[in-house]
Amino acid sequence: MHLANYLGYLHKAELHLAEAFRKVGEGHAAEADVYHACNTLAQQCEAHAGKLGPFVERYGEGAPAEPDRLYHELFDETRSGGLGLLRDLQDLYLMANACDISWTMIGQAAQGVPDRELLEAVDSCEGQTATQIKWLKTRMKQAAPQALLVAS
Amino acid sequence: MTDRIAKPWGVRTPYGRDEEWPARVDQFLEDGVSEDDVDRWIQTASILHSNGDALDIAVKGDRIVGVRGRSMDRVNKGRLDPKDLFGWQANNSEDRLKRPFVRKDGELVEASWDEAFDLIVDRSKALLDEKGPLAFGFYTTGQLFLEEYYTLGVIGKAGLGTPHMDGNTRLCTATAAQALKETFGTDGQPGSYADIDHADAILHFGHNLAETQAVTWMRVLDRLAGPNPPKLVVVDPRPTPVAREATVHLPIKSGTNVALLNAFLHEILANGLYDKQYVEAHTVGFEELRQTVAECAPEWAAEICGVEARRIREAARILGESERLLSTALQGVYQSHQATAAACQINNIHLLRGMIGRPGCGVLQFNGQPTAQNTRETGANGDLPAFRNWDNKRHVQDLAELWNVDSMKIPHWAPPTHAMQIFRYAEQGSINFLWISCTNPAVSLPELHRIRSILEKEDLFVVVQDIFPTETAEYADVVLPAATWGEKTGTYTNTDRTVHLSEAAVEPPGEAKHDLDIFLEYAERMDFRDRDGRPLIKWVHPEEAFEAWKECSRGRPCDYTGITYEKLRGGSGIQWPCNEEHPEGTERLYADGDFNTRTEECETYGQDLLTGASNTQTEHRAMRPAGRAFLRAADYAPPHEEPDGEYPFRLNTGRTIYHFHTRTKTARVPQLQNAAPDAWVEIHPADAEALGVAEGAVVRVESPRGRMEAKARISGIRKGVVFAPFHYGYFDEPGAESPDGRPRAANELTITEWDPVSKQPLFKVAAAKITKIAEAGGVPAPAPTTTASAPATGGSVPETRGGEAADVLETVGGE
């Protein structure tokens, strides 16, 4: 059963996203709103991983066939400046979307099993992931004109 | 005669529920001037707070010599706030700016208007060529007039095309506006001051009404002194005059508002005290709210808020069992943690109880400044004018047609840039032109050392338009001397939507110009044109600007089309909407439970209360609001900066009745200045004892960002909290902010952080430590004894008195 692999994948992806949110928050701490929002969202991601934990065990976490390349490809160190902020938020956006679609797939599988508890976990988390994406988009839309047109 | 410094609220005129509030006309004339000496009385309204009290200015020769309340006005029925009674004297101050200044070789030197404008326009044109409109920022106020804001808004949005416009209203009422938008679809106060006449319970949440809107507090005091007085629930960490009258006072820890409010909502739901029919017919989001507060019992909140569960339960019962509930909120909500989320929960109490739009049933999300409502309405704060939605293409197109410009010119690709972000862009060097009108960010913004370092940047061209040489003007490249209230004509709107006309009584001093004329001259010299090559701004006089604004407001919730200057002359102020349908104005909004939430009409598609993430039009449509109000739910989250071992106190900043803003006017008024002559900090007796601090000892208060020094007032404030008034800067204490001076601005300490939804900075939540640096030397703190800063134990501290100089004639029953 591949559900175990996917649960393991999402578990890692959420923890990586949490770490990335924290790094971006620290790296752009002079943007007070980014700093606080990133820390708040990092906590959400950690809580998501915590909720997944029991299911990862329940379905037997086989090591994912592939390492989570997404994280390493997209994100390593934060950049600086207005454009750097935009690029970092864009990386977070892609990572959050990877989580988002994983929640969707796990939700589908949970209905198929059926596993009511897993479905409840998906329900309580996927909305937050969607809001994370929405926040990233809102913040990038706000920052883009200034960063792309007039930032030094 | 009443000493209105000693007795700020004057004599009582008690009245009972559903009775009319009696008139009481307050009058103060300069020493040696009698009524017979007054040449003429000129109609206006108060400019030193948001209450909108109507008054007449007494003129003798070419000078203002006094004021008198207007008994026929719905707002104050003749009464005046101490600041209005005495504050007009600042107009006559010798310190007024009378000529422009420009910076030459690092020094500000007097210049002609031509020189000043040449510099501004040359810099503007060069920057426009080089970087475009995004290099421009405008930071205005809540103290100019509607006509001026609207003109400034058109210049910024359709002339230059910059989204970087905001007012200091961001510090004062941004959360009020945002919470109204989130809940009801658009800005606009549902309630009316007259709800005080009918209410059987009043909730004052984080709102020291007695000191911020003194006349409306007189109305409450008069109800309390009459038959069938309302019960008062007061939430405030300080023993304010409001708290002292409370049936239940909850002095909660700063930053925990949402926990307390969720407990109120929990109790209302758990005890079945909500109006099921109203909720079903007129709201969206009940199930989510119910789930959110399901576990929020008073015992849970008591732990977080630091007050007893039984007191929370008692308060919730008053709110839940009242038949006519009025709620008011101010900076204890708006400048605190989870600001918009908390303000929305206050709206939720009223939606759950079906108490909106009926006499006695209202929400007043108060404003702090006299004309803040107009900053919001006209779009001088970055919003689109007349509560249009920046994300609604139809709304933007309406404006483009009204102004006859390409809709691409009007910046609407993202939410407007809020003040803190404007300063951040300036800090990063992408904004290089900042025009500051009628406000003093060098004292009023958080974390002042940072603000000073931004204002003094070489690559930032700063224009300051003001009436006095403020702390901010010190950093200007060009200083423009402006006329003030009493010297110019225009309109403004108070918290409860009452529009007043304020007419010029005297000429401005020296070469000072009307703010409207300054903006118009900039537009003309910049040669802003519409699509047909005609001048963009098509008005010259205030009344023409008002007429242009009326067209902009036509058909919108803040419809002014039924108001004229002539209609405002002589009688009472008028509440918008005022149009053909409502020719005499509208006392309460949403009487029919039909809200402005339709996707086509709303001012916002809504934001996530935790992060500020914006909904799209599609998402809004999917919620199918269809004229129903949103019950917006929010979980409590702890503040980001909590006290710890190093900084064990909670810092709270705020105001006193005797001063307004950064004291540019009130410090120049002897009665007001003498009542509160210098900064102080308030601490609890037990904390004082632990620190070895007696009344009047000098203490240093430090936060991770800075320090201030002031004498300590031992007061009845909550233990563990230190309060500092934010009014005091450095203009009348030169050099104080230098390393060997005495820093006394509370904003040296405050944190650079803002509410994710309203973007209002946090002035009421930070951690601090206190160190004693000198003994009292027998001199108590210079804090008033008549107000929230009263000493915990009287006796040793002389009472605040105004003496004969503050004697005011109060005529009960009218003229």
The CATH level-2 architecture of chain A is identified as Up-down Bundle
* Alpha plus pi helix count of chain A: 5
**Helix proportion of residues of chain A, in percent?**
over 70%
Please compute the radius of gyration of chain B using only Cα atoms: 25 Å
Word description of this protein:
- The complex is a heterodimer of chains A (152) and B (815).
- Chain A is an all-alpha fold and 152 residues long.
- Chain A is 82% helix and 0% strand.
- The relative contact order of chain A is 0.16.
- Chain A has helices at residues 3-27, 32-58, 69-74, 81-112, 116-150.
- The model of chain A has no long low-confidence stretch (mean pLDDT 90).
- Chain B is an alpha/beta fold and 815 residues long.
- Chain B folds into four domains: 2-92, N-terminal domain of TfIIb; 101-171 and 371-537, 3-Layer(aba) Sandwich (Rossmann fold), CATH 3.40.50.740; 174-366, Dimethylsulfoxide Reductase, domain 2 (3-Layer(aba) Sandwich); 649-784, Barwin-like endoglucanases, CATH 2.40.40.20.
- In chain B, strands 7-6-18-17-16-8-9 form a seven-stranded mixed beta sheet, sandwiched between helices.
- In chain B, a hairpin with a 2-residue loop joins β4 (54-60) and β5.
- The longest helix of chain B is centred in the N-terminal third of the chain and has 18 residues, at 113-130.
- Chain A binds chain B through residues 30-33, 36-37, 39-41, 81-82, 131-132, 134-135, 137-138, 141-142, 144-146, 149-152, and chain B through 131-132, 134-135, 163, 413-415, 417, 420-421, 424-425, 427-430, 607-608, 610-615, 637, 640, 752-754, 756, 759.
